[in-house]
Design goal:
Order of helices and strands: HEEEEHHEEHEHEHEH
CATH superfamily: Nucleoside phosphorylase domain
Mean pLDDT: 92
Number of strands: 9
Shape: globular
Strand content: 15-25%
Number of helices: 7
Largest sheet: 5 strands, mixed, barrel
Number of domains: 1
Structural class: alpha/beta
Length: 265
């Protein structure tokens, strides 16, 4: 039986990526930085789920950023689409299976801080799983008891911070709270999130962080801020706003990632 690992190994023709990036809503422009790209639709990869969210391309793009071999997942599947917190398990297992050791996750998120407006980029320093679910539900082995004290790798994150400094790109840091979605948060939920110590809210990423640590990969993660949280401006939130604003912060994030990853070998 052909697996996603088999297909990736065949199509990549000797390319062995050490770094993988998962792109969030509206952040697909980062693939333009990849040289000599190999493109593989998710539909060609057994077990890869098909995203039903606009703004997610649903393809793998592999090549180089600078000196570094990389593989990019342009699009993800969210818990709210099918009620499966482990929807990204097969893609992440495939990445680990072809030799990826560093995973960089990106998302679009709502800011809970006035000093972090739409268009900003926030490095996730920690997270709060507010969804009430976990991608390791049903995992039979004791490996399911994954420590999360160092969920975000210090060395990898330090390289990202150094890249931000060298490109003069402002990089905020903060705590990301995962809500299940797909409805946006209420003003009361935003006030609660701020009280609990969150700096941004969103509907993804945390399951992938848990799965990546389960698989032994190092993780760094970033939120591109597309809006303020509900009740902070008086306006209503929409997914269209997310898609419209994501490319603005996405350019800043691309500058950081291009510098940080391009210098790694």
């Amino acid at each position: 039986m052909t697996t996603a690992i088999d297909v990736l190994t065949d199509r990549l023709r000797g390319l062995v990526p050490t770094h993988a990036i998962v792109l969030g809503s509206g952040l697909g422009s980062l693939v333009e930085t990849v040289t000599n790209p190999v493109r593989i639709p998710y539909g060609d990869l057994p077990g890869f789920p098909e995203s039903g969210v606009s703004g997610h391309a649903g393809e793998v793009v592999a090549g180089h950023i600078g000196k570094t071999p990389v593989i990019i997942l342009s699009g993800r599947v969210h818990y709210y689409e099918h009620g499966k917190a482990d929807a990204m398990r097969t893609p992440l297992e495939a990445l680990e299976g072809i030799g990826v050791s560093n995973l960089i996750l990106t998302n679009s998120a709502g800011s809970l801080r006035q000093d972090m407006p739409p268009g900003s980029v926030m490095r996730i320093s920690d997270h709060i799983n507010f969804s009430g679910t976990n991608p390791l539900f049903g995992e039979p082995s004791d490996r399911r008891f994954v420590g999360m004290t160092n969920a975000y790798d210090e060395d990898l994150c330090a390289r990202m911070k150094a890249a931000a400094n060298s490109t003069a790109t402002e990089l905020h840091e903060g705590v990301y709270m995962w809500f299940s979605g797909p409805s946006f948060e209420t003003p009361a939920e935003i006030r609660m999130a701020r009280t609990l110590g969150a700096d941004a809210v969103g509907m993804s990423t945390v399951p992938e962080v848990i799965l990546a640590r389960f698989l032994g990969m190092k993780v760094a993660a970033f939120s591109v801020i597309t809006n303020f949280g509900a009740g902070m401006t008086g306006g209503e939130l929409s997914h269209q706003e997310t898609k419209d604003m994501a490319p603005i912060g996405g350019k800043r994030l691309a500058a950081i990632l291009t510098r940080a990853i391009g210098d790694m070998e």
